[in-house]
Design a protein that fits this description.
The complex is a heterodimer of chains A (373) and B (544). Chain A has 373 residues and is an alpha/beta fold. Chain A folds into three domains: 45 residues, no CATH class; 244 residues, TIM Barrel (Alpha-Beta Barrel), CATH 3.20.20.70; 41 residues, no CATH class. Chain A is 26% helix and 23% strand. Chain A has nine helices and 21 strands. In chain A, strand 3 and strand 4 form a beta hairpin. About 7% of the residues of chain A have low confidence. Chain B is α/β, with parallel strands linked by helices and 544 residues long. Chain B has four domains: 208 residues; 34 residues, no CATH class; 243 residues, Rossmann fold; 31 residues. Chain B is 57% helix and 14% strand. Chain B contains 23 helices and eleven strands. A seven-stranded mixed sheet of chain B has the order 7-6-5-8-9-11-10, with helices on both faces. Chain B has a four-stranded antiparallel sheet with strand order 1-2-3-4, sandwiched between helices. In chain B, strand 5, helix 11 and strand 6 form a beta-alpha-beta unit. In chain B, helix 3 runs parallel beside helix 8 and helix 17 runs antiparallel to helix 21. The chains are: A alpha/beta (373), B alpha/beta (544). The interface between A and B is large, with 77 and 75 residues.
């Protein structure tokens, strides 16, 4: 066989095989939903020459030209005016136990109407909600849910509070703020589940209208924040400090990821910082990492690591340290700092028993910090 | 041709023919080991196999095109093969530490683009010189290309047999590659007798020995900062065991198989199915038994369990590493363990079961997709008692079902519904699918009552956790999503669940992967499958 003949045979055989291959592709159809976006002027930005703007909501301080969007993907400069595209555009709505946020010292045993829009100003490699946090709002299905109708939804599902959660609520700040105002007007509480990547001014304004803030402290080194979160540790610490000084109830969650942020030394330093800057009465939750998103192939956190973290923080003098995502673990319960008796017994998201009277331990009368009613 | 001048004299033509045979032998064995290693570092998905094979052919073709223009002579072949062996070792090292080059963690997902780039880059260093070697072999055989093809094919066949029958069952990929290289080096030394033959052979043998010895240390180093305690190549892939605190995590081809203890995964894979009926007696568990599935099943009184695991090495390693409580269930007299492909087992068994529980990865590969097709579900239904239950778990999203996830879940729901009249899905970070010919329920009150009646104490599928997981809003949301429109039926030869899972997987990367896969779905088959072949045919015809 000559080279030419071989090529000819190969070409012919290829055509025959190709024609006979089953057609998977023709049987597949592609769909696409386009969300309708809002057009509400954003707060916290400044106008610059040449129709540019600079966002002043989060430390990224995105400087944007006309038609450009911020890092979060949900705020856009249109002709020199900055707009939020997700005002009243909820993409997720649930009635969750407040323990799931987690808040352990805030209306225990109740449910929180939990809502989110698309977008985030961070990019955590372990994000639980990447389908909505790491996309633009037109890539998700949105529901029109303006602030004025949300309290009715909360009442419908027997929720005394509204939680701004799942994605980073900082990026839907205006929506959150107005909803919180509306909720307060109707006697409902507002709780914010945030990574704390927000500038001081909007944070201070937010503190004026919400009742509780849970900050996800994702690690205690800037390296971790740079590599796995794409954010700034110092901003998050400043947020915690600011909330701790306010009247808003504060809880902190530290997601323990094996080998990445679980060193005993980092945890000890973090616990010391929390005690010094936020006080020893701030609840600190160590949550178990379940592999997700881009690091879904990593192992989950061993229980012993969580126990080590809790013991370390307790030894540093924090009064209320919890273990999360391990239902039935004694580290889920609240213990009186004085008599050491169990004052709130929990199993997972269920509150089994509350032994508090007027916010005090029913055994010894020691006050237990929190919002109990 | 000073070295091979006696090619046709006194050796039955062995000196002339052996290089072409060795070419096929080297190319095929190197390709097999490269594919197996590639699967470990780029998720074991067949798409990445396609990349490697495509890149391999591309560079081989380019090598054979460029070969005649290089001023090489057939007597360069021995040195050429030796250099290729060296390059191949380097490629495997680069592949093992690919995440360092990409700036990611070991085990971190990186997307299809890096997989494509690595397949192109690594194949170039091996397949290109082998393509050039083809031309040199043709020159050695005086332009008799068909004979080169024949000899090369014989070498490839010999490689396939020896690698799969002799090497893979007993050696790791690196060790296998080292042995192949040493054997080729020896053959060159013995038969071709090139200049500085001893030097070439010694260099090859030393490199092969070093390479084989470095396998596990290199693997441990690549996994840092995680603690790799064991690695083993089996016919089914590369098994690796990580230790984190008291916890052991088993990986197969770079993908997590299970962590122990991981009570949540074990409970959710078993209890939603078994709580459906009063007293499930005969249970078939496909996968997942060693990670807690068997122990969870045995919480039901009067149960007998048949547990099918494809890779005996998983049980062997579990017995070596897991603590005694984890192994107790495996040794229980009510449990029978079978080492077999789950689908083959189901096909041959004559028993009927009250529950068939799949505890397998999601259909992320064509191989696993076989357990999620209409054909397989029909086989399951034939082996289920009239009110028997099938269940499996797939990763999902608790708070938002994206369009990609929705379409993937719809294929599963539609495929199950094509076989079973009753189908339900449990919401959560993982969705538990249940299917039966008889009514099913995920009413939390009913499940909690069943748990209490049976005296079963769980941590996650428990009275404390079920009401939140099965909150009406979440159940309705998932149900509405998976039934929003009729999905496509997943079949053995039309693996739509595999495709939609690939789209979903690709959506995690902010790159071109997801868009490319969606485009493929819209392009008629002719343009994807036939047109490139037409183009290739035209190109070949022009070249001829």
């Amino acid at each position: 066989m000559k080279r030419r003949d071989f090529f000819k045979s190969a070409a012919g055989a290829g055509l025959v095989i190709g024609a006979g291959l089953p057609s998977l592709c023709s049987r597949l159809s592609a769909y696409g939903e386009k969300g309708v976006l809002s057009h509400v002027e954003a707060r916290y930005y400044k106008k610059l020459p040449d129709r540019e703007i600079e966002c002043e909501l989060c430390p990224r301080a995105c400087r944007l030209g006309d038609k450009e969007r911020g890092y979060c993907g949900v705020r856009e400069n249109q002709g020199g005016t900055y707009y939020t595209l997700v005002y009243g555009k909820a993409c997720s709505l649930n009635a969750d136990p407040i323990e799931k946020k987690p808040f352990f010292h805030f209306l225990p045993g109740t449910k929180a109407l939990s809502l989110a829009t698309a977008g985030c100003n961070l990019n955590c490699k372990f994000c639980q909600n990447w389908e909505i946090s790491q996309v633009r709002p037109e890539q998700v299905e949105n529901v029109d849910l303006p602030p004025r109708v949300i309290p009715a939804q909360a009442e419908r599902y027997d929720c005394p509070s509204i939680a701004y959660t799942y994605t980073e609520p900082t990026v839907f700040y205006e929506y959150m703020y107005d909803t919180a105002v509306e909720a307060r007007r109707q006697g409902l509480r507002s709780v914010v589940v945030t990574a704390g990547h927000i500038k001081p001014e909007p944070l201070k304004d937010l503190i004026g209208v919400v009742d509780a803030i849970k900050v996800d402290l994702k690690g205690y080194t800037q390296d971790f924040y740079a590599n796995y979160v794409r954010g700034e540790l110092k901003t998050v610490l400043e947020t915690i400090r600011t909330v701790a000084k306010s009247k808003v109830w504060l809880e902190i969650v530290y997601l323990v990821i094996p080998t990445l942020n679980d060193s005993a030394e980092d945890i000890r330093k973090m616990a010391q910082w929390v005690k010094n800057e936020a006080g020893d009465r701030v609840p600190l939750h160590f949550s178990r990492f379940q592999p997700l998103y881009l690091i879904k192939n990593l192992p989950p956190t061993p229980v012993s690591t969580l126990e080590m973290a809790r013991d370390t923080a307790l030894a540093e003098g924090l009064g209320f340290v919890y273990i999360g995502n391990i239902p039935g673990h004694p580290g889920e319960n609240t213990y009186c700092t004085n008599c050491k008796k169990t004052v709130i017994q929990r199993t997972g998201f269920m509150v089994d028993e509350i032994r508090l009277k007027g916010g005090k331990c029913q055994f010894c009368g020691t006050p237990v910090p929190g919002i109990w009613a | 041709m000073p070295v091979l001048r006696d090619a046709r004299a006194g050796d039955l033509g062995l000196r002339a023919r052996l290089p072409a045979f060795l070419l096929g032998f080297l190319a095929t064995s190197f390709q097999i080991f490269l594919l197996r290693e590639f699967a470990v570092h780029f998720y074991g998905n067949e798409m990445t196999f396609g990349f490697v094979l495509g890149a391999w052919l591309l560079w081989g073709g380019i090598g054979s095109l460029v070969g005649p223009r290089l001023r090489l002579r057939p007597d360069h072949l021995p040195g050429f093969y030796t250099a290729t062996i060296g390059l191949y070792f380097s490629c495997l090292v680069l592949l093992r530490f690919s995440h360092r080059l990409l700036g990611t963690l070991p085990g971190e997902l990186t997307g299809l683009v890096p997989a494509l780039l690595f397949s192109l880059g690594l194949s170039m260093f091996v397949s290109f010189p082998l393509g050039v070697a083809f031309v040199l072999n043709a020159a050695l055989l005086h332009g008799d290309a068909p004979r080169v093809y024949l000899l090369e094919s014989l070498g490839a066949a010999a490689a396939g047999l020896s690698v799969y029958l002799l090497l893979i069952p007993h050696f790791s990929n690196w060790q296998g590659a080292a042995l192949v290289s040493a054997a080729v080096g020896f053959a060159i030394f013995l038969v071709l007798r090139p200049a500085k033959a001893w030097l070439l052979f010694l260099a090859t043998a030393a490199a092969a020995a070093l390479f084989a010895a470095a396998d596990f240390p290199a693997l441990r180093s690549a996994w840092k900062p995680f603690n790799l305690v064991h690695a083993e190549d089996t016919p089914y892939g590369k098994l690796q065991v990580l230790k984190t605190g008291e916890q052991y995590s088993f990986y197969s081809n770079g993908l997590p198989v299970f962590s122990y203890p991981n009570t949540e995964a074990a409970e959710e894979s078993v209890h939603f199915a078994l709580l459906q009926r009063e007293g499930p007696k005969d249970i078939l568990l496909i996968g997942g038994g060693v990670s807690g599935g068997c122990a969870e099943c045995l919480k039901y009184p009067g149960t007998t369990l048949e547990y099918v695991e494809i890779d005996p090495a998983i049980i062997r390693l579990a017995e070596r590493y897991l603590p005694l409580p984890g192994l107790a269930a495996l040794r229980d007299s009510r449990v029978r363990v079978f080492f077999e492909d789950g689908r083959a087992f189901l096909g041959r068994t004559s028993k009927t079961y009250d529950a068939v529980i799949l505890s397998l990865p999601e259909p992320a590969t064509a191989q696993i997709n076989r357990f999620y097709t209409r054909e397989f579900f029909a086989e399951v239904r034939r082996k289920l008692s009239p009110d028997g239950v099938l269940s499996f778990v797939v990763p999902s999203s608790e708070n938002y079902i994206s369009g990609d996830l929705e379409r993937f879940l719809q294929t599963l729901e539609t495929t199950l519904s094509a076989v079973f009249p009753e189908v339900l899905a449990v919401p959560g970070e993982n969705n538990v699918f249940l299917a039966s010919a008889s009514p099913l329920s995920i009413d939390p009150g009913r499940l909690v009552a069943a748990l209490k009646r049976l005296g079963i104490r769980n941590r996650f599928v428990s009275p404390e956790m079920l009401p939140a997981r099965l909150a009406p809003l979440r159940v309705d949301y998932l149900s509405q999503k998976i039934r929003a429109r009729p999905g496509l039926v997943n079949r053995d030869l039309i693996p739509v669940s595999y495709y939609f899972h690939s789209v979903l997987w690709a959506a995690q990367f902010k790159g071109v992967e997801s868009a490319a896969l969606r485009i493929f779905a819209r392009v008629p088959a002719f343009w994807l499958l036939d047109f490139p072949l037409v183009l290739a045919g035209l190109a070949l015809a022009l070249m001829a």
